[in-house]
Amino acid sequence: MINESKTKYMKINRNMTNAEKDLIIDGLVLEGVQSFRYLGTLINSKSVISEEIKSRIAEGDICFYNLGQLFRSRAISKAVKIKINKMMVKLVVEYGSETRPVREMDMKRLNTWEKKILRMIIWTSGRIRNVENKN
Fold first, then answer.
1. 17: confidence class by pLDDT, cuts 50, 70, 90
2. Rounded to the nearest 5°, which phi and psi values hold at 43?
3. Which residue from 17, 29, 65, 93 lies 20 to 30 Å from 73 (Cα-Cα)?
4. 67: CB partners within 8 A, 6+ apart
């Protein structure tokens, strides 16, 4: 039995002319969608992950700000704060990233976000350079 209100379909297509129409199967009307969230991952019909990365960065920001009191605490060393960031905040952003093909633009966006978070943790306004990205 198909639950008509919970069941939707999506056609994967790289063309921008993808207009989803309702699909009728045995009298059931299934709504066509352009994107949906499945197991925490945003899937869209154009197979582009830029929206997923934006969504992950937003979730990472929420996680960071929810832990803000911990990161503002003077009782915790900067080294411990950076470890907490790696174990809790960064993992939210990186979840499922090993299965995504990441473009250079998306990689720059992720690196910029990570530097922003590290700046906020170590209370500096200077630049943090990522030695690994110097090729």
1. low
2. -115, 130
3. 93
4. 84, 88, 89
**C-alpha span between 33 and 125 (Å, rounded):** 43
**Both tokens of residue 64?**
């960071």
Helix (H) or strand (E) holding 65, with range, is: helix 50-66
Buried b (16+ CB within 10 A) or exposed e, 27-55: eeeeeeeeeeeeeeeebbbeeebeebbeb
| Residue 54 reports pLDDT greater than 80 | yes
pLDDT at 123: 65
Identity of the highest mean pLDDT range in 5-9, 66-70, 73-77: 66-70
Token pair in block for residue 78: 């900067």
Residue 86 vs residues 24, 97, 114: alpha-carbon distances, Å: 47, 15, 10
Task: Report yes or no: 34 and 45 within 8 Å, Cβ to Cβ.
Answer: yes
86 is written with which tokens?
């790696």
List, in sequence order, every residue forming a beta bridge with 32; answer none if it has no partner: 9
Q: Where are the beta strands (DSSP E) in 35-134?
A: 35-38, 41-44
